Amino acid sequence: MANNINDLFRSLGRTKKVEFISENIEYASAGAVADYVKGYLFDVLNDVEDDEYIAMYLKNKGYSVTKK
Fold it and tell me: What is the pTM of this model?
């Protein structure tokens, strides 16, 4: 059954995947969300629309961040 669900999910288009995840996010583990979000990471970061949040994350990882 799990394979059928995974196959069905993979067959969905990008918009349908996003809608499904948004509607059911409370049932997912952080690891499961990360696996699916990884492919859409930059889209997610654009949706956040919070440059300071992204800069803080990178700074905490040891990166130097400057705004141009």
Answer: 0.46
